[in-house]
Amino acid sequence: MAVMAYNDVMRQFRHRILPPNHPYTLFVKRVAKRLVQVSGLENLKWEFYVIDSPERNAFVLPGGKVFVFTGILPIVRNEDGMAAVLGHEIAHQLARHSAEKVSVTKIIFVLMLTLQLFGVDTSLLFNQFTLNYLMMSPFSRKCETEADVIGLQLMAQACFEPRESLEVWKRMSAIDKHEPPQFLSTHPSHKNRVERLAQEMPNALQKREDSDCSSEMQVFADMFRDARVRW
C-alpha cells in the first residue's frame, strides 16, 4: 500500500518535483537532516521532495517519504519555520499514525459486520457523514495534534527555535481566513493549534535548553537563520 501511494504521488507530480540540487530542495533537506538525527528513526530510508506547486501543504507517506509544496515556503520563511512543518511530518511517521488509521478502519469494519450479524441496519449508523465527521475526523484531528506536539519537541531538541511554530500557524491563519469549522475538518483549527503549541512551549524551550547543541551547530544554525531564504 505504501509503495503504491508513493508511486502514485511520483507519477502525479513527476513534472513538478524539483531536482535534488535546487536551492529549495537543499533547504528542505538541510533542515530535515537535523530533525531526523534526533527522531530515533535515522535508519529509516528518508526521502524529501519539493513539489513546485502553490498548495500550502506538506505530507508524509509511510516509510519516510516526505513531500513539501513550494506554496508553503513563503509561510515558513526560514529554517525554524520549515523545522515546524517538517517536524510535524516526521512526527506522523514516529507515531505510526498511518498504521493507527488502518487499525481504526479495521475496527469499524469488524463492528459493522458484528452488528449486521445481529440484524442491525448499519446503513443508518455508518453512513458517509457518520464515518467522516463523527469517527474519522476526530481521530485525524487527534493525530494532527499529537504530531504538532511531537514535532515541537523534535525541533527544540534539534536546536531550532520552537517559538517560530507559533508564527507559522499565525501566518497560515491570516491567509486561510475561511477555513471550515473544526468539527468538519480532519485538522485542528489554526487557532486551536496555536493555543495548544503555546501550552507546550515551556516544555519545548526547556528541551532546547537541555539539548546537547554544540557551539558549532549553534553557529551553523544562527548563520542560516540570519541569511533567511525569502520567496
From TrEMBL:
What GO cellular component entries does it have?
mitochondrial inner membrane
Superkingdom, natural source: Eukaryota
Enumerate the transmembrane spans. 107-126
Q: Name one GO biological process term.
A: mitochondrial protein processing
Keyword rRNA-binding attributed = no
Pfam families per UniProt: Peptidase_M48 (PF01435)
What keywords are annotated for this sequence in UniProt?
Hydrolase, Membrane, Metal-binding, Metalloprotease, Protease, Transmembrane, Transmembrane helix, Zinc
Give the molecular function GO annotations.
metal ion binding; metalloendopeptidase activity
> What cofactor requirement does the entry state?
Zn(2+)
Record InterPro entries: Mito/Outer_Membr_Metalloprot, Peptidase_M48
Q: How is the cofactor bound?
A: Binds 1 zinc ion per subunit.
The residues covered by the Peptidase M48 domain are: 28-199
Q: Which family does it belong to?
A: Belongs to the peptidase M48 family.
Protein name, UniProt field: Peptidase M48 domain-containing protein
